[in-house]
From TrEMBL:
The keyword S-adenosyl-L-methionine does not apply. This is 2Fe-2S iron-sulfur cluster binding domain-containing protein. It comes from Acetobacter oryzoeni. The lineage of its organism: Bacteria, Pseudomonadati, Pseudomonadota, Alphaproteobacteria, Acetobacterales. The keyword Cell membrane does not apply. InterPro entries: 2Fe-2S-bd, 2Fe-2S-bd_dom_sf, 2Fe-2S_ferredoxin-like_sf, 2Fe-2S_ferredoxin-type, 2Fe2S_fd_BS, Beta-grasp_dom_sf, CO_DH_flav_C, CO_DH_flav_C_dom_sf. Residues 1-75 form the 2Fe-2S ferredoxin-type domain. SUPFAM superfamilies: 2Fe-2S ferredoxin-like, CO dehydrogenase flavoprotein C-terminal domain-like, CO dehydrogenase ISP C-domain like, FAD-binding/transporter-associated domain-like. SMART domains: CO_deh_flav_C (SM01092). It holds the Pfam family CO_deh_flav_C. It comes from the Bacteria. GO terms for molecular function: 2 iron, 2 sulfur cluster binding; FAD binding; metal ion binding; oxidoreductase activity.
């Protein structure tokens, strides 16, 4: 049985293999959350999980144990929800109404630091054009308190969790699930999932210092990374990555560990971690091991993670902390889009080239272009040499033609990005 709080009352469901949206609509007949895109793009299915807006179409039922779920049916009855709904009605921010419940939920559960456009970037409206919606919401100060996202769920120690996974090798560990559930589609019921929220291991959800290095727990949500002050001051490149990962609803669920484990060539965190020369830390029943993230990713969807191992964190070396850093993601929009290509660059004082960089989405793994790197190590830092290094890099990357872009476009943009990054990192003007 899966037990959780639904609109303030304890409930149970006897089955898994469903999304939270299906549970709400089919089992509890709460139809305020709507199925729109089914991929976390439109926000019509937004509900609050432990006070945070998430896409219920991307939440597996197995992740609900111990959670507190709030839907529009309950929120609309609160003073905060009523005020938001009234403001939208007064200002004409409602037409067909399909998107309205999700907008109310996203605004009520927004991060305190989010501007209106940031808070609503995961909600699509096909009718009003957003002007009236924004005007209405800016007249409300309603903000719900966020509750602890772990205390009610963590019922197992890390070692017990590892033992449980070893005893059940067909179980699939799931953190945010924002990629896994989309890929699973209608076959979600055929998967046996193990929610990593069950692990009582606070270090997996924290940023902390260790021997001068910075360690980022694998279960850090991208929304937390985006707003973390330590990350903003030490590795701002990861803050920039977080902004482009998706909407607040996606970032409230997706984790940095899950992004790496998926090993997508377009995964935004991969080139950034490689450029930071980060090491991935894995744990298994007999101990832990580490390796460079660059070595961990072996191909499209392939890694060196062994059966029974879990990713527990990423170690950022002291030499890269606080250094000039850049991340550029090229896509059809600034956020909530799969990369056509990306480039992460970090100044590394003790590196022969004084620079570390990695491209994303132009090869099966993050591309570090050794020939271009060696050339930069042997030359002066000026625009002429940057251009030649970029030409060398273009001979090393292997972009493809696909639905998002052409190989030729990716190469042309990648060349210009590397030149621009080098100029900015080394302080040169164009």
């Amino acid at each position: 049985m899966i037990t959780f709080q639904l609109n303030g009352k304890p409930v149970q469901i006897a089955h898994a293999g469903k999304t939270l949206l299906q549970v709400l609509r089919d089992d509890f007949h709460l139809t305020g959350a709507k199925l729109g895109c089914g991929e976390g793009e439109c926000g019509a299915c937004t509900v609050l999980v432990d006070g945070h807006p998430v896409c219920s179409c991307l939440q597996a039922a197995e992740m609900l144990q111990g959670a507190a779920i709030t839907t529009i049916e309950a929120l609309a009855q609160t003073p905060e929800g009523s005020e938001i709904c009234s403001a939208l009605a007064r200002k004409g921010g409602v037409q067909c109404g399909f998107c309205t419940p999700g907008i109310v939920m996203a605004w009520a559960g927004r991060h305190p630091d989010d501007a209106p456009d940031d808070a609503l970037e995961g909600n699509l409206c096909r009718c009003t054009g957003y002007v009236k919606i924004r005007t209405a919401l800016e007249q409300t100060d309603c903000l719900l308190p966020h509750t602890d996202t772990v205390s009610g769920k963590a019922d197992m120690s890390l070692q017990d969790g590892l033992a449980y996974l070893a005893q059940n090798p067909d179980l699939i560990p799931i953190a945010g699930g924002t990629d896994l559930i989309v890929r699973a589609g209608h076959n979600l019921g055929s998967l046996r999932l193990f929610s990593l929220d069950r692990l009582n291991a606070p270090e997996l959800r924290q940023v902390f210092w260790e021997d001068g290095n910075l360690v980022i727990g694998a279960l850090m949500r991208w929304q937390d990374i985006l707003h973390d002050r330590i990350i903003a001051h030490t590795v701002p490149i990861l803050r920039d990555v977080a902004y482009g990962v998706g909407s607040p609803q996606v970032r409230n669920a997706a984790t940095i560990g899950g992004n790496v484990a998926t090993a997508s060539p377009a995964g935004d965190s991969l080139p950034a971690l490689v450029a930071l020369q980060a090491r991935i830390r894995l744990i298994h029943p007999d101990g832990t091991r580490e390796m460079p993230v660059a070595e961990f990713i072996t191909g499209v969807g392939r890694t060196k993670r062994k059966a029974g191992e879990l990713i527990v964190g990423f170690v950022i070396p002291a030499k890269c902390i606080g250094q000039p850093q850049m991340f550029t993601k090229v896509g059809p929009r600034k956020a909530q889009a799969i990369s056509k290509l990306s480039l992460a660059t970090v100044l590394v004082p003790d590196d022969p080239a004084r620079i570390s960089f990695a491209f994303g989405a132009v090869g099966p793994v993050p591309m570090t272009c050794p020939k271009a790197h060696q050339y930069l190590a042997a030359q002066e830092c000026d625009k002429r040499h940057f251009k030649f290094a970029a030409e060398l890099a273009m001979s090393e990357i292997t972009p493809i033609d696909d639905m998002r872009s052409t190989a030729a476009y990716r190469k042309a943009v990648a060349r210009n990005l590397l030149i621009r990054h080098c100029q900015k990192i080394f302080g040169h003007k164009s």
